[in-house]
Amino acid sequence: MTSTGSTAAVPSAPVVPSAAAVPAAPRWAVRAAHVTALLTLPTGVWRLFLAAGFLAGYTEAGYAAAGLPGWGRVYVVLLSAAGEVLALLALGLVRPWGVELPRRVPLVGGRRPAPGRVVAAAGACAVVLTLVWTPFAFWWLVPHPDLTATGATLIGFLYLPLAAWGPLLGALTLSYRRRHRAAAHPYEAAGPRHMR
Fold first, then answer.
1. What share of the chain is helix, strand, coil (3-state, %, to 5)?
2. What does residue 58 show for φ and ψ, rounded to 5 degrees?
3. How many CB atoms neighbour CB 153 within 10 A?
4. Helical pair 27-38 and 165-184, crossing angle rounded to 10 deg
5. In contact, 194 and 156? CB cutoff 8 Å
6. What average pLDDT does the chain have?
7. Which residues, 6+ apart, have CB-to-CB distance to 177 below 8 Å?
8. Of the candidates 150, 129, 125, which has an alpha carbon nearest to the alpha carbon of residue 140?
9. Strand, helix or coil at 58?
10. Which pLDDT score, from 0 to 100, does residue 57 have?
11. Helices (H), 25-148
């Protein structure tokens, strides 16, 4: 007597295409990634001036109220460094090391990050950055009593580029997803003409 058994579907692991299989990033995405990496530079330099003891647009009372003498200096240096590192990660969405981590990287070198996780992380960052920095586009509509008039104008221009960070990262994330999807599903990417 033969039994007719049903085969249970085994969930497959996510497809992680090789670096060679992923199409190169379009020129606009490469340029956008480099612009994104530079967006935090103006505010980072300004914060370093604050850490060095310059008022950099603050009134004396405003500088003291911001807690910059003392541990506040350490905070602004760390904030500048963290912002720049985060902005530089956008390059991973257009460079080969975003597909396969360099072997020289300790613990994770040579591994290929799952594209779905990269897209989820980058997409979440894009949303958060958009929510955090978009209000700075309206900087001049809000009074800044701790700043001099010149300082408020200058700082507004230094922070204004950050309003583009989230949208640019979002566009780069979509481009990264599209390229990885094309590598994982070449028949879909090729379209009906490929099937002939």
1. 65, 0, 35
2. -80, 155
3. 15
4. 140
5. no
6. 85
7. 115, 119
8. 150
9. strand
10. 94
11. 27-38, 41-51, 60-65, 73-88, 115-133
Q: Is 167:35 a contact under the CB 8 Å cutoff?
A: no
CA distances from 179 to 1, 94, 129, 174, 191 (A): 52, 10, 23, 9, 15
Identify whether the C-beta of residue 19 lies closer than 8 Å to the C-beta of residue 183.
no
Residue type, 40: T
pTM: 0.80
Indicate if the pLDDT at residue 188 is higher than 70. Answer: no
Question: Measuring CA to CA, how many Å separate 72 from each of 83, 147, 177, 192?
Answer: 16, 17, 39, 60
Picking from 81, 64, 56, the residue whose alpha carbon sits closest to that of residue 158 is 56
d(CA 141, CA 155): 13
In terms of Cβ atoms closer than 10 Å to its own Cβ (0-12, 13-18, 19+), residue 116 is: middle
Host H or E run for residue 159: helix 149-159
Residue 140, both tokens: 């001049």
> Which pair of tokens denotes residue 7?
């085969």
**pLDDT per residue as tens digits for the range 107-149:** 777 788 889 999 999 999 999 999 999 999 999 999 999 999 9
pLDDT digits (tens, 9 = 90+) for 46-68: 999 999 999 999 999 999 888 88
Report the Cα 173 to chain-centroid distance in Å: 9
Q: Which residue has the tokens 């204004």?
A: 160
pLDDT surpassing 90 at residue 192? no
